[in-house]
Specification:
mainly alpha, 12 helices
Length: 301
C-alpha cells in the first residue's frame, strides 16, 4: 500500500509538471524562436539525463550496444527530440496555447490508427467510434466552434499540431519495440537528437544569437520539466504502481489543468469551443483505451 501511495505521488507530480509546459512553451516563444528554444531545452535535458544515468550507475550501459542499436537511437533521436519538437514548437508559435495543446494531445488516437499497420493490431467498432469522437473535438477546436462554416482559423498551425501527434505516435511505436533500459535509451536518443539540432542551428546561423535571460530561463524550464526529469518520474510511478491503469488514468487531468494555467499564466481567454473540443478528444481517448484493454483481456483468456 505504501508503494502504491509513492506511485501516486510520482504520477501526480509528473502530471502537474506536464500541465505547466504548454504555458512555458508559449511564454518562452515570446523571447526565442522555435529552433532556439529546442536547442537550449534539449541541451539542458541532455545534461539532466546524463546526471540521472550517472547517479543510477548506468553509464557503462551506454557502451554495450551494437551498431544496430546506435543506429536505432539515431533514428529515434531524429524523431524525438529533433523533428517532434521542431514541429510542436512551430505549431505553438502559430496557434494559441489552448488550441495547440489539445491538438497535440491526439497522439494517443493517432497511435491507435498506426498500430493497425505497424503493430498488426485489430480495431473494433467501439474504437472507430472513439476515433470519430476525438477528431470531432479536433474539428471543433480548429474551427473555434464554427463547424458548419468549415473554416480553420490557422490551417498551417493546425496541420503542424496534428503532425506533432503523428510524429510522437511513430516515436512511441518504434521506442516500445526497443527493449533496452529506458533511461539510458532516452539519453542516447537525446544525444543523437541534439547533434541534429546543433546542425540545424549552425545551418540557420541562429547559434550566434544570444537570447534574452527570460528566454534562457524558459528554455531551462522546458528542458527540465518537459524533456528531462518529468519523464523519469513518470517511469518511476509506472514501476511502483500495482497496475499501469491506476496511475495512467491520471494523465487525463493534464490537459484540463493545463488550460487553467494557460488562462492565468499566459493570459489567454479560454474559448468555449476549446473546452467542448477537449472534452470530445479526451472522451474518445478514454473509450478507445477501454476498448483496447477489453480486447487484450478477451484474447488472453
Amino acid at each position: 500500500m505504501k508503494q502504491q501511495k509513492q506511485a501516486y505521488v510520482y504520477a501526480i507530480t509528473s502530471v502537474l509538471l506536464w500541465s505547466t509546459v504548454a504555458s512555458a512553451f508559449k511564454i518562452s516563444l515570446r523571447y526565442l524562436d522555435y529552433l532556439q528554444l529546442l536547442f537550449l531545452a534539449s541541451f539542458v535535458s541532455l545534461l539532466v539525463l546524463f546526471i540521472i544515468v550517472s547517479v543510477q550507475n548506468k553509464l557503462h550501459y551506454l557502451f554495450r550496444h551494437s551498431a544496430k542499436d546506435y543506429l536505432r537511437s539515431a533514428l529515434l533521436g531524429f524523431l524525438n527530440p529533433f523533428l517532434y519538437y521542431i514541429v510542436l514548437f512551430k505549431a505553438y508559435s502559430l496557434l494559441p496555447a489552448q488550441e495547440a495543446q489539445p491538438l497535440n494531445y491526439t497522439w494517443s488516437i493517432t497511435l491507435a490508427l498506426f498500430s493497425i499497420p505497424l503493430l498488426k493490431q485489430r480495431i473494433g467498432y467501439v474504437s472507430i467510434l472513439a476515433l470519430i469522437i476525438s477528431y470531432l473535438g479536433v474539428f471543433i477546436i480548429s474551427t473555434r466552434g464554427n463547424v458548419l462554416g468549415f473554416k480553420f482559423t490557422n490551417p498551417y498551425g493546425v496541420i503542424l499540431a496534428l503532425g506533432s501527434a503523428v510524429i510522437w505516435a511513430l516515436f512511441w511505436i518504434y521506442n516500445v519495440r526497443d527493449k533496452r533500459d529506458e533511461v539510458t535509451k532516452l539519453f542516447l536518443n537525446f544525444s543523437f537528437g541534439f547533434i541534429f539540432i546543433f546542425i540545424a542551428m549552425v545551418l540557420s546561423s541562429r547559434i550566434k544569437i544570444i537570447p534574452p535571460m527570460a528566454g534562457i530561463a524558459g528554455g531551462i524550464y522546458v528542458g527540465l520539466f518537459e524533456m528531462g526529469i518529468t519523464f523519469v518520474l513518470w517511469l518511476k510511478a509506472l514501476k511502483l504502481s500495482k497496475t499501469t491503469a491506476q496511475v495512467g488514468n491520471l494523465i487525463y487531468l493534464s490537459p484540463f489543468v493545463s488550460l487553467v494555467l494557460i488562462r492565468f499564466v499566459v493570459g489567454e481567454k479560454i474559448l468555449l469551443s476549446t473546452m467542448v473540443g477537449l472534452v470530445f478528444i479526451v472522451t474518445g481517448i478514454i473509450i478507445q483505451q477501454y476498448d483496447s484493454r477489453r480486447w487484450v483481456s478477451k484474447h488472453q483468456l
